[in-house]
Amino acid sequence: MGEETQVRVRGIYSTALSKLFLDNGFSITQSSAILAERLKIKRTMNPPDVEVYDTKNKQGVIITGERETLRKVVSIVREELEDVVTRKAEVNLNAIYVGRIIKKYNEKAIADIGCLRVPVNEKAKEEGEVQLLRVCEIDPRPQATGEIVIAGKYVVLTSSGHIGISSKIKNRDVREILYRLGSSMKSTDIGIIFRTAAGNADISLVTKEIKELEEEMRKLLDLSVDLDEPMLVREGDETVIVEFPASTKMQLDSIRERVTPTISGHHYYKALGSDVAQIVDFAEELISRHTELRDEVSQLLQEWIIDNTFKNEDEIRFEHVKLNGKIIFLHGKILQRKDHREIIIRRSFTAGGYYDGLNAPKEAGDYGVTQVKLGEWTFKTEYYSKKGEFKGAFYNINTPIELYPNRIRYIDLEVDVIQFPNGDVKVIDKDALEEAFIKGYITEKLKQKAEQIAEHIAKEAAASAKS
User: Fold this and answer.
1) pTM, entire model
2) Which residues fall within 8 angstroms of residue 176, CB to CB, at 6 or more apart?
3) Phi–psi pair at 264, nearest 5 degrees
4) What 3-state class would DSSP assign to 443?
5) 63, 453, 400, 370: which is closest to 265 by C-alpha?
6) Which end of the chain is more exposed for a tag (fewer CB within 10 A), N or C?
7) Residue 374 — φ and ψ, nearest 5°?
8) What three-state secondary structure class fits 250?
9) Least confident of 98-107, 315-324, 351-360
């Protein structure tokens, strides 16, 4: 498996994930020089079978590749990192469709590609017309473009008509050879981009691939002329989105620590953005020289983040991430920050609807008091009327809570616990958790963990109500 499956990893999780893949028999290709040195591997430029790179929000990774090899990689991720949430993308990256333009405004458009409607970011025709479209983005939502691309191991053919060479190919002589090859083989309407792997490949293999891909491109363009209904014409790269909750980030910290000095919370801080990432780099340089300071430096950094992020009376947002990827934003105001781990928040409600599971109507003036604690798998909200009458409590079961600037983030695990005003307690939405497991969003271990947490909270709440 390892010799056959080449994995390319980029982004803030690259060291930890590369170590994980190596330990499970895969090969790492096209790594940075620093990463190769850390992992003590020979740096190669082989074409990857599977590519792994950060999501835009840095909360996980996107994995793309040929179906069977991709599934092997995803399987290892789920086995080794049992709290991950995995979602198959709605459409494959670089899949090509015949799409119908159903709405156009300024330079933007919306197209029906048969399975869903997607925004088209460039080269869109007029409303009602059909055209070839390629899925160019899947994160956070699918987007398409009129620029058609077909990728091979060594080259990418495009409908843009220009020649390009990967910036990773540094050798001037090799770049010159590839440019001349591209110039001699390029058609007027089809461009050639040489991928990193072309820099070390036999030129005959590169030439052969260009010819094969051009033939495929021609057939694709000819086929599209006769099609007038939205449909898939090329599958593209199978794509899976993997989300890393707080517990997984901590596990990845531990894996990274086996390779290079790593501060506790490394991947959480890296997800915060470039400013904090620079502080993390400095802190890890410090602990590489003074390992005895690791815990102290980690604690100071955590306290600094909280002190500069959350203050009493600040507005705060809950980023309530559903297992299917949908995000619900809830808003509140900080009443009290008890320490560097716990925050009490007040939320106001408008009239209309009912509180989940409690069958109590939402009325004007109602409010909720929410207790949130860093790293906890649950948080509790108590609901009150305008007059302060207790209307019930809701215990949300979720992945460990993370605190980001002006927001609280977690992945909702569907199952919840409610407590009625009379003290009765009930576990709800077990079926939604089971459905998420069946759909493959979560592992069996994470499902069982959520169920156990819910049952434990229900028993504690029931015992507390009787005392």
Assistant:
1) 0.91
2) none
3) -60, 125
4) coil
5) 400
6) C
7) -50, 130
8) helix
9) 98-107
- Quick one: DSSP state of residue 251? H
List the helix and strand counts (H, then E) for the chain.
11, 25
- Distance CA(80)–CA(252), nearest Å, equals 10
Task: For residues 93 and 134, give the distance between their C-alpha atoms in angstroms, rounded to a whole number.
Answer: 8
Name residue 3's amino acid. E
Name the residue with tokens 């909720």: 368
Distance of alpha carbon 463 from its chain centroid, rounded? 39
Let me know how long the chain is. Answer: 467
For residue 322, the SS3 value is: coil
- Looking at residue 100, its pLDDT comes to 93
Q: What is the pairing mode between strands 407-419 and 315-321?
A: parallel
Domain layout of the chain by residue ranges? 6-89, 96-236, 261-306, 315-466
Cα angle vertex 46, ends 201, 89, to 5°?
Answer: 125
| pLDDT tens string 187-233 | 777 899 999 999 999 999 999 999 999 999 988 888 877 888 899 99
315: nearest Cα among 395, 396, 246, 406: 406
C-beta separation of 28 from 39 below 8 A:
yes
- Residues paired with 332 in a beta bridge: 316
- pLDDT tens-digit series, residues 384-441: 999 999 999 999 999 999 988 888 999 999 999 999 999 999 999 999 999 999 999 9
46 — alpha (psi -120 to 50), left (phi > 0) or beta?
A: beta
Residue 302 has pLDDT above 90, yes or no: no
CB within 8 Å of 344: residues ≥ 6 apart: 334, 335, 336, 337, 338, 369, 370, 371, 372
Residue of 261, 282, 281, 259 whose CA lies nearest to 270? 281
DSSP string, 133-186: EEEEE-SSS-EEES--EEE-SSEEEESS--EEE-TT---HHHHHHHHHHHHHH-
List the CATH code of the domain at 315-466: 2.40.380.10
Token representation of residue 455: 């049952």
